[in-house]
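Thread: quick sanity check before group meeting

JM: Hey all, I'm pulling together slides for Thursday and realized we never actually wrote out the predicted structure for the chain we discussed last week. Dropping the sequence here so it's in one place. If anyone has concerns about the input, flag it before I start.
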Amino acid sequence: MEVDMHIHTLESDGTYTPEEIIVRAIKNRVVALAITDHDTVAGVKQGKEIAKKYGLEFIEGIEVSCNEEELEVHVLGYYLNLDDEKFLMELAELEKARDERNRRIIEKFEKLGIIIDIEELKSFAPGNIISRLHFANYLLEKGVVSTKNEAFDKYLGRNGTAYVPKENFPPERAVKMIKDNGGFVSLAHPKLITLNDEVLNKLILKLKEYGLDALEAQYSSFSKIEKQKYKRLAKKHGLLITGGSDFHGDNREGVDLGDAGLEYSQLERIKKYLNR
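JM (edit): ok, ran it. Output follows.
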């Protein structure tokens, strides 16, 4: 009985609809899942309704993109109240900041002699969120690059010529936002934040002050040894464990639903914690 608590749909930078996600999850013997699109809950209500139809346990989720000095930090929220107007207003602010960042990226490309047609770019993003991955797909389609990796290495990554840093949105703000909503908070894929254990420990300690509940210790690309390491780290800080595939459909090769191997018993611990 596997659980997948980290999944993206075409509402952010995935390629599957909520229904396609749920059908594939059942095929992969996943018994409970969370849709965690970047900075949006646009697909969550639909996912919840479809999951109910199929008899699949569903968790209302989100992944909030944050930054901590030079670090890119992602915060996962679960069991969200989707009728919370304050929470939805915060997400609207994030969307505005993302739109402004995308406008500045397009300007940088123009200076490089590469014209990005915004309406055509939107066709690569069926949902409301245009991410750097959509820019990469656009550049690949236009023949500007040969691979998505090249798009990030040359243009969109931190050292790329069209890179624009995110507007400051500290992770403690995301944690507070989710806790104020009544949700459960986990720090996503800690290895991808930093390989410096001291920096990671300091970040966890700070976020715990704002209500951090868990660490994503079981992540699809983590080795067995890495999963054990982050489970020990969670235990050290008195945190619970979440896990997920970080499935993006065709936008992330070699990753499938249920790949993190999160046992249902871990989800039971979370539900017991929430009902304490």
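AS: nice. The mean pLDDT is 95. The longest strand covers residues 57-68.
JM: adding both to the slides.
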